[in-house]
Amino acid sequence: MSNPFRDELVARARPETCTVVIFGATGDLTHRKLIPALYNLAVDGDLPAGVQILGFARRDWTDDYFRESLGKVNREVSRTGHDDAVWGPFAESIHYHQSEFQDTGGYQRLAERLEEIDRRRGGAGNRLFYLASAPEFFDDIMQHLRDAGLNEEREGCWSRVIVEKPFGTDLPSAQHLNQVVNATFEESDTYRIDHYLGKETAQNIMVLRFANSIFEPIWNSRYIDSVQITCAEHFGMEGGRGGYYDKAGAMRDMVQNHLLQLLSLVAMEPPTDLSADGVRDEKVKVLRSLRRWDTPEEIAANVIRAQYEAGHVNGKPVVGYREEDRVDPESMTEAYVALRVLVDTWRWSGVPFYVRMGKRLPKKATEISIHFKDAPDVLFNALPGGVPGGNVLVIRIQPDEGISLRITSKLPGTSLRMEPVKMDFHYASSFGKSSPEAYERLLLDAMAGDATLFARRDEVEEAWRFVDHIEHAWHASGTPPPMASYVAGSWGPKEAEDMLAATGNDWRRL
Ligand code: BG6
Predict the structure, then answer these.
(1) Distance of CA 107 from the midpoint of ligand 1 (Å)
(2) Considering Cα of 311, then 312, then 317, then 319, what sign does the dihedral take?
(3) Which protein residues touch ligand 1 with a CB less than 6 Å away?
(4) What pLDDT, in 10s, does the model give residues 94-132?
């Protein structure tokens, strides 16, 4: 009898060869993420034979110049290093197509070029379009692909599109973008990237929860006191990022996508199967259940936003947010945000999810911690001072990927003294090889037609609904809540500490 679980897993193992057409191919994303990901798949022998890459961009580059430029960056950033013996044949599969995004002729020539590549090199007629350009061109690109008939499936060949973030800047713009993309590609051929879903440890959240029998019975408000999700970054606005970031801010840049995706994976109900829609149906239910605070006062009490002042990070002096390159000196954009989120479901009723992200914190680290309730107030908990430290399950998303569990143990000796100890699992020592980069997994999944690790249309829109109601309260009212501040290199503003202290909690030290 056919088993949908197994069939799904078997299908996942089979990415198909195709031509990857990258719009915005001269940019950073292509150089630093996409090409190194495809190269590393080739190194590991995971890239389907015959995959071709065609860069589409405005600059007047040649195939050779494009390859050289990509090779230079690959040398610096590739996960497995750079081996000329692999790069040589790999680079021959890379091509460049110069065109403006609005030029109809450019797309006709693109269609011819794709035919020619298929004939000469065997891209097999499958096309994977990757929108890595600035989002303002997505409209034009979609329309021209449609006009050139490049979105159509032909003679058993597929055509799919991967859309890079930012996916809109608010709900209306995301809805518009969804309409534009879905007018050209079916939803089942649309892959909205959230690279956090491609991270090995993010994928492990579901495995931890549903492949072990010991966690799920206690994964609810009876046993869990609170959950924390932290995404800390030590960098600021290097490399000219200030221009984009100052228009976006931490809420739009990371909470709407990466952090809400992590929260959904922690909070979702077990899906009925592992199909893309099975998993995404459950995640979207979580997003729909997020409490919307009613008044600006409630929002101010549950959402703290802040900017950093000049300080020191890793021993080096750094400027404050408003002094950063391309940031408005009077900017009211947050570079840090901390939220108390409530998931109004039976399972999570009353359990706060504390979510924070900030630039110019002491280090780069992303982790989720599950804080369990204390043991009953008898026996050890009834002793003076109680038990030192409660049970905490920590999922380290990056770096030093792994999972640890804090338990209380008796200190060796004749008296009764207790101390928290850690049971720890590190990916690096347990599995002895580096995890693939998120983009490696995601590109392969798109070639296999598996959308599980991509955001579905309704997920993106629900996440925007949640973020918009906070953004509106910040910007629509004549009196926006104060912008808190913290010294660069510290763990964020005092207001965020106070928000947790009000309910007897504190942020976990990373
Ligand atoms: C991006 C954000 O989506 O994710 C950046 O735009 C952020 O601001 C980055 O730095 C973090 O990704 P990672 O994989 O380095 O944690």
Answers:
(1) 31
(2) negative
(3) 165, 195, 233, 253-254
(4) 999 999 999 999 999 999 999 999 888 765 799 999 999
